[in-house]
Amino acid sequence: MKVKDTDILIVPGYTNSGPDHWQSRWEAKLSTARRVEQAEWSKPVREDWTARVAEAVNEATKPVVLVAHSLGVPTAIQALPLCKKPIAGGFFVAPPDVANPKIKPKHLMTFGPYPRDPLPFPSMVIASRNDPFCDFEIAEDLAGAWGSLFIDAGEAGHLNSESGHGPWPEGSMTFAHFLSRLSANSG
Predict the structure, then answer these.
(1) CA 178, CA 124: separation in Å to the nearest integer?
(2) What percent of the chain has pLDDT over 70?
(3) Count of CB atoms within 10 A of residue 96's CB?
């Protein structure tokens, strides 16, 4: 698929993605990308956040590709039962371990546990070996349960602007490759 053939939904995590974050840069660069806005970025409520993702999916006019980061990943995954339209693909970066009782802030645990059923669309999970919000093995296990292609990002922190991944050219190339492999009649 090409960008013009998709509705790319950017699903940020806790506190949103700032202007230097790769998600914001991609949103500005990709003609069909739009952010799923949340009413409360710093006080996420699972039901509200998942409803907003489902609403965005259901309003889409082209096949949907989800691009989720951090808390955006469980938000997107938990929204799937509410989506009435099929999703063409999911690009999931730095999923947090929402089952970890040490997660901060504590209310992020309400986004777990993750469903472990295989996803009904092609997907990719990219995780770092030193992400402070998720052990690498947990992310790898989730990717396996979902049937996602798993990408080891090495020692890359939380794959956000704070860890030096504002522009993130490797991510952009990986996403372009992922998109090119999606079937035009998906979604």
Answers:
(1) 8
(2) 98
(3) 27
Whether the link from the prior residue into 113 is cis, omega within 30° of 0, is yes
Residue 185, Cβ density class (10 Å: 0-12 exposed, 13-18 middle, ≥19 buried)? exposed
pLDDT for position 107: 86
Tokens encoding 76 = 């997107």
Arithmetic mean of pLDDT over the chain: 95
**Whole-angstrom distance, CA of residue 76 vs CA of residue 9:** 10
Per-residue pLDDT tens for 142-161?
999 999 999 999 999 999 99
Burial 138-169 (b: 16+ CB within 10 A, else e): bbbebbeebebebbebeebbbbbbebebeebe
Angle, CA 9 vertex, CA 142 and CA 149 arms, to 5°: 30
**3-state SS of the chain?**
CCHHHCEEEEECCCCCCCCCCHHHHHHHHCCCEEECCCCCCCCCCHHHHHHHHHHHHHHCCCCEEEEEECCHHHHHHHHHHHCCCCEEEEEEECCCCCCCCCCCCHHHHHHCCCCCCCCCCCEEEEECCCCCCCCHHHHHHHHHHHCCEEEECCCCCCCCHHHCCCCCHHHHHHHHHHHHHCCCCCC
